[in-house]
Recover the amino acids of this structure.
């Protein structure tokens, strides 16, 4: 290896002169022997120049240097080069091999490339599996893009309900670099496919609210279909004044007088005196029964109140109250997360410092669920599972005291005997290699988003990745 030429190549790469860098990296090698670093950076330079087939060949040479390592990064870069060169089948093989490298620190990049290549080949089921792996990879700092791509696959597979969940989850994880408008547009298509037209129009409205995002032809067609369906549904609803107002509701048969009984039908004018006496006695008996009806109703209500009072008293001794322990705990966590007043949920006997300690122990945007409770008439001890914003869990011991009919919190303590799940949502990257001139060159090399110019971006062998679209 010619050290002087190698240094010149690194300098050219660092300054962005990729044409010179590609030539110098090749010239620095002695013979045809593979040299991992030189061939890796030569491949990166060729990628920047749009010479994708040559870049794929350079990565293949670098892979022959077993001492160099970085197999996952090289295979991922080779897959990107092959996709750009139009060789999708070979790209699938490269990406698949990259996912098998246990030492590869950012496998989500290989899964994203694999999903994209499979989707272009029309293999939507396997593409969805790859996107799902990219989304759940703990090293992926921005899973929203993979989740949105998974939603696209579900829509194409005519599984709109699954697509809806994927897009909605993508919106939950969306960051500043994610295209929220595009995700909302995909969500609108999924809602339309599920015949949830009102939700579809809401999603399309959110997608175009910034005035910048333009719906694709398919998305515009889905929006128009949702609008037409809602308009047709509204047209079929009867108007408020469509009822016949010519009919008098008090005389639906018209002015026939049939609601007024005819005297000949009542028998009143044909009754004998004896029959009239018998009828009067029967009516008197009915009236006596009616007089006792009120007393019966009163006694019944009294019995109901007695039973209800006994039930409430029993419930009181068993720890029931209003608000309940769970209601108080939920509202306390919500108030602490939003920096609202918490005094109404805390025991009145606590001083300011004790209240501050309790509020400070509550994680932001966490939810609390009582899993076990030893409830008494005036005191309750509860075991509480707290789910953190990022999905982790903690266990707390919470003490309640009764104030009036309801419960308030008097103490909160973490239970460190129970371990919670840790949500590794923050991405990690390949560990930095020992500082060399090559590291400095690669670290300072400019990066660019392959999707912006249809030109994939390769991994630098020494630079730390800056995200899904950064140079590797």
């Amino acid at each position: 290896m010619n050290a002087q030429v190698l240094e010149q190549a690194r300098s050219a790469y660092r300054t962005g002169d990729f044409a010179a860098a590609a030539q110098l990296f090749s010239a620095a090698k002695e013979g045809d022997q593979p040299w991992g670093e030189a061939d890796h950076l030569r491949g990166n330079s060729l990628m920047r120049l749009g010479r994708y087939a040559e870049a794929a060949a350079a990565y293949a040479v670098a892979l022959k240097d077993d001492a160099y390592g970085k197999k996952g990064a090289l295979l991922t870069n080779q897959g990107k080069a092959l996709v750009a060169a139009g060789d999708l089948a070979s790209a699938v093989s490269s990406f698949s091999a990259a996912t098998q490298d246990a030492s590869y620190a950012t496998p989500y990049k290989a899964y994203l490339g694999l999903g994209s290549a499979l989707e272009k080949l029309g293999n939507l089921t396997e593409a969805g599996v790859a996107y799902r792996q990219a989304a759940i990879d703990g090293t992926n700092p921005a899973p929203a893009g993979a989740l949105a791509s998974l939603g696209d696959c579900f829509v194409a597979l005519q599984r709109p309900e699954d697509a809806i969940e994927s897009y909605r989850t993508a919106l939950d994880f969306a960051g500043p670099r994610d295209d929220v408008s595009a995700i909302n547009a995909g969500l609108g298509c999924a809602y339309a496919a599920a015949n949830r037209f009102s939700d579809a129009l809401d999603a399309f409205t959110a997608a175009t609210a910034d005035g910048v995002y333009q719906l694709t032809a398919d998305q515009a067609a889905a929006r128009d279909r949702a609008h037409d369906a809602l308009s047709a549904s509204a047209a079929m609803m009867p108007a408020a004044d469509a009822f016949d107002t010519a009919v008098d509701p008090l005389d639906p048969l018209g002015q026939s007088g049939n609601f007024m009984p005819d005297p000949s039908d009542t028998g009143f004018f044909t009754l004998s005196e004896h029959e009239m006496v018998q009828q009067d006695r029967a009516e008197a008996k009915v009236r006596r029964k009616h007089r006792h009806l009120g007393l019966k109703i009163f006694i019944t209500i009294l019995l109901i109140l007695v039973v209800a009072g006994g039930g409430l008293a029993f419930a009181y001794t068993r720890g029931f109250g209003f608000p309940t322990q769970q209601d108080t705990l939920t509202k306390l966590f919500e108030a602490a997360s939003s920096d609202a007043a918490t005094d109404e949920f805390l025991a009145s006997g606590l001083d300011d410092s004790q209240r501050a300690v309790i509020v400070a122990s509550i994680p932001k945007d966490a939810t609390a669920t009582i899993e076990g409770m030893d409830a008494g008439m005036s005191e309750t001890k509860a075991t509480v599972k707290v789910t953190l914003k990022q999905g982790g869990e903690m266990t707390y011991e919470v003490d309640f005291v009764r104030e009036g009919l309801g419960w308030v919190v008097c103490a909160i303590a973490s239970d460190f005997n129970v371990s919670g799940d840790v949500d590794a949502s923050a991405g990690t990257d390949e560990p930095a290699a020992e500082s060399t001139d090559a590291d400095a060159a690669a670290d300072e090399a400019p990066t660019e988003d392959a999707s912006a110019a249809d030109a994939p971006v390769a991994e630098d062998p020494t630079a730390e990745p800056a995200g899904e679209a950064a140079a590797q």
Observations:
- The CA atoms of residues 222 and 267 lie 72 Å apart.
- The longest strand covers residues 393-403.
- Residues 240-247, 256-271, 416-455, 462-472 have pLDDT under 50 and may be disordered.
- DSSP finds 19 helices and four strands in the chain.
